[in-house]
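Hi V.,

You were right to ask for the full record rather than a summary. Here it is.
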Amino acid sequence: MRTALVCGAGGFIGGHLVKRLKAEGFWVRGVDLKFNEHAETAADDFVIGDLRDGNFCRSVVDRKFDEVYQLAADMGGAGYIFTGEHDADIMHNSALINLNMIEALRKRQNRNIFYSSSACMYPAHNQEDPENPNCVEDSAYPAAPDSEYGWEKLFSERLYLSFNRNYNMRCRVARYHNIFGPEGTWTGGKEKAPAAICRKVASARSGESIDIWGDGNQTRSFLYIDQCLEGTIRLLRSDFEGPVNIGSEEMVTINQLVDIVSEIAGKRLHKNHIPGPIGVRGRNSDNNLIRKKLDWSPSEPLIKGLERTYAWIEGRVRANS
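Predicted structure:
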């Protein structure tokens, strides 16, 4: 039986990835600081522990796995990574996780390793025009990420690819663009824009106002979780090391995102634009490279994923109220 290790299995993407690998017949070990708060784990073995601890990393990498997915990181939405209040923790925690994991994997001769980077590592000056952001993979240098979160991701990309060159480890690196879907963080400050908007719309009555950070004209693209997993697995099993974007090319403004979710909910809502962290003005995935290298790119329309996500979050809002 094929085996897989998923680090960050208690998180949103990791939890869904475990289910996908189980459906393919893998024996899966999940690792995280905690269980997923929104769904039971499908992992055969779920180990609770701190990947910042090198001894713990060596204990969970006790064999040669067929596939390893390193998703664990200290992260969150704009309200967490762009305020500056968590910069030291973000850099320290995520860097330690990656330094410990890559060394533990090397010592056990693991070779098929996926690392999840982020579009936050792209230069901020390439994302000032909300209508024409530049997120082509080779635009990463000269480096100038918009946050310390992005700087750590850029460092860790180079870490994994260095181990490729020096130890023949066959690491694969992808830059995720705003992954969303059910069973993810939807409240508490670490949620991302689609979940936050779905929660606000679900909590409001038709005719009321909801708060939006900034003027709402900042642009983003959002990728549904199933499409993210497909791209992730295809990349790991390919001959291309990356880095490569895994994201949607369907760019919308935050105002448009609110309108789409409001339409799904059947509500007419007003937008109350308030000061708040917004990150770069524009960001969108460029999928030319992934189409060329994997003969595939995400294709599902944004509204389809939002319909599923809104239904799930609306259920949580009702249950809590």
